[in-house]
Amino acid sequence: MDFSMAPGTFWFEAWQARASLLSGLGVTLLSSALSIVMATVCGVLMGVALSYGWWWLRLLARLYVDLMRGIPVLVLILFTYYGLALFGVNVAAFWAGVIALGAFATAHVAENFRGAVESVPAGQMEAAKAIGLTFGRRLYYVILPQAFRRMLPPWVNTGLEIVKGTTLLSIIGVVELLLAAQQQMARNYMIVEFYMLTVVLYLIINFTLAQLGALLERKTSYLRY
């Protein structure tokens, strides 16, 4: 590979395209972060509802989880952007993508968290109840800390899927990293080189997220028993 910065070389074209690529990278990172936060918060609450909610709340949560897990994420993105407009709800393309990805991932986080909560031995809850803790305190101090560590590996997997899912936002006109790279390919015809650059950037993002999950696991390793 030619590492010079002469016009027509890959490094020259990559430098020329830096603003567009960095903008697309920023959109990918922001949409991923917002979707992960949304999915984590809503998924944990829904997971608690699935495990300890009233029967009607468990039923609603179960319907949501099964529905969202059964719909392809691309269909969900298109519906959020185009379908809601039919009901007079106009959502910007970026936020439609974030909502769709977050709603999709919420179902997976909820199911993972439900499994994590129910994997905690029943004796833990009974012991906490025996020393006089209220339900809220039993949940906060006893069950949730143990469940959080158990759900970390699948949570990381869900985060990785969200990052990869941001590539689908281009279908509604969001210029994320992949679409930004494709726009540059249409200008310079360096298809293989720019696809490889995009692959490297996605690998860096996902590797960083995976290492963050590993760090959290090490920080909470004392919760094992």
Automatic annotation (TrEMBL):
Keyword Cell membrane in record: yes
Subcellular location: Cell inner membrane; Cell membrane
Keywords: Amino-acid transport, Cell membrane, Membrane, Transmembrane, Transmembrane helix, Transport
Primary location class: membrane
TM region(s), chain numbering: 29-55, 159-182, 194-216
InterPro entries: AA_ABC_transptr_permease_3TM, ArtM/GltK/GlnP/TcyL/YhdX-like, MetI-like, MetI-like_sf
Annotated ranges, domain ABC transmembrane type-1: 25-213
PROSITE patterns, per database record: ABC_TM1
Similarity remark: Belongs to the binding-protein-dependent transport system permease family. HisMQ subfamily.
Ranges in a coiled coil: none
Protein name as catalogued: Amino acid ABC transporter permease
Record carries keyword Isomerase: no
Membrane topology: Multi-pass membrane protein
